[in-house]
Amino acid sequence: MKILFNNKTLIESLRPFNDLGFVPTMGGIHRGHLSLINKSKKLCKKTIVSIFLNPKQFNNKKDFKSYPRNIKNDLKILRKSKKVDFVYLPKFKDIYKNHNKSKITLDKKDKILCAKFRIGHFEGVLDVMNIFTKIINPKKIFMGEKDFQQLYLVKNFLEKKYKTKIIPCRTIRDKNKIALSSRNILLSKSNKNTAAKIYKKLKNIKRVLHSKRNILDFLIKQKKQLEINFKIQIDYLEFRNIQNLKITKKKNNSRLFIAYYLNNVRLIDNV
Ligand code: AMP
Questions:
Q1: 217 C-alpha vs ligand 1 centroid, how far in Å?
Q2: How far is the centre of ligand 1, averaged over its atoms, from the C-alpha of 26 (Å)?
Q3: Burial 2-29 (b: 16+ CB within 10 A, else e)
Q4: Residues lining ligand 1, Cβ inside 6 A
Q5: From the CA of 147, how far away is ligand 1's center (Å)?
Q6: What whole-number distance in Å separates Cα of residue 133 and Cα of residue 158?
Q7: Which pLDDT score, from 0 to 100, does residue 99 have?
Q8: Which long-range contacts (CB under 8 A, 24 or more apart) does 204-213 make?
Q9: What is the number of the ligand 1 atom nearest to the C-alpha of 150?
Q10: Which residues, in sequence order, are bridge partners of residue 258?
Q11: Helices (runs of H) and strands (runs of E) counted in the chain
Q12: Do residues 239 and 252 make contact, with C-beta atoms less than 8 angstroms apart?
């Protein structure tokens, strides 16, 4: 496993390879990240993982400050997996040095779900993914369905511009079905119990959704109840089609999306 600390070594090291699988991360490596790496190892000749906490995609300074960072431990886990060929650890200037101010904007139709609540977040994500794709030129990029809207926007944006394919990977959960996330380290045991109960409740809501006459109305009521019962603040609880992310009433190709705050930690999931 070779560690690449800057763009010069990155470009030199990657030159011989044209079948690269790329797994972008912000560190805090967990089994969710490892599942993406496993898939890359299966489908590509070489796998490169990046660890870069991109300040431009944080719309909230506190969130950026408290985001878990432990490069030493991350490298230990990645090395132990024996599946990673390169780890890219760029500094801010490696990414943004020759970069003009981003002109990326979201379409009005995309300003939904997290984009509505985290202003500028996805513009930052698309910008950094665009720069990564230019520098690394991967054949495939592996991304998790946990961050479904991110996967959807990055796929639509990059596949129009480059030959690179975005490969969706299913959400990995712990034994209590909580979606793994680097931010989970900021949760107490009792927070985790609550998150597990919320997951169960989401599954139930999804199961009964179609027996309701007015789904929108039902979800508004469920959102209120969840907020009261679990003492959480919910940004959204919405049922959407996974091919176009439009609000839907149909069962096929649809999921229930949620974003909520637990102990000031923002969690997202979709079931
Ligand atoms: P992050 O480090 O949180 O930016 O995540 C890096 C990549 O891992 C993104 O494509 C995420 O969607 C993916 N990811 C994060 N958590 C999970 C999970 N529990 N299951 C599958 N993929 C995940």
A1: 31
A2: 9
A3: ebbeebeebeebbeebeebbbbbbbbbb
A4: 25-26, 32-33, 35-36, 143-144, 146-147, 169, 171-172, 179-182
A5: 7
A6: 8
A7: 76
A8: 205/237, 205/256, 206/239, 206/255, 206/256, 206/271, 209/239, 209/256, 210/249, 210/251
A9: 12
A10: 237, 269
A11: 10, 9
A12: no
User: Ligand 1, from 169, 182, 199: best to mutate by most atoms within 8 Å of Cβ?
Assistant: 169
Q: Which residues contact 112 (CB under 8 A, 6 or more apart)?
A: 149, 245
Q: Mean of the per-residue pLDDT values for the chain?
A: 97
Judge if pTM exceeds 0.85.
yes
Give the pLDDT confidence score for residue 102 in this predicted structure: 77
pLDDT of 225 reads 98
| Three-class DSSP category at 148 | helix
**From ligand 1's centre to the CA of 197, what distance in Å?**
21
Residue 139: the pLDDT is 98
Tokens 């299966």 belong to residue: 42
Which candidate, 131, 250, 268, places its Cα nearest to that of 198?
A: 268
- The domains found in the chain, sorted by start residue, are 2-169 (3.40.50.620), 187-266 (no CATH)
**Structure tokens of 8?**
């010069």
Task: Say what the pLDDT of residue 72 is.
Answer: 98
Q: Which of 26, 39, 143, 146 to mutate to test the pocket of ligand 1 (most atoms within 8 A of CB)?
A: 146
Output the pLDDT for position 103.
85
Minimal-distance CA residue to ligand 1 atom 13: 144
Give 122-157 pLDDT, tens digit per residue.
999 999 999 999 999 999 999 999 999 999 999 999
Residues of the chain with pLDDT under 50: none
Q: How far apart are CA 102 and CA 124, in angstroms?
A: 8
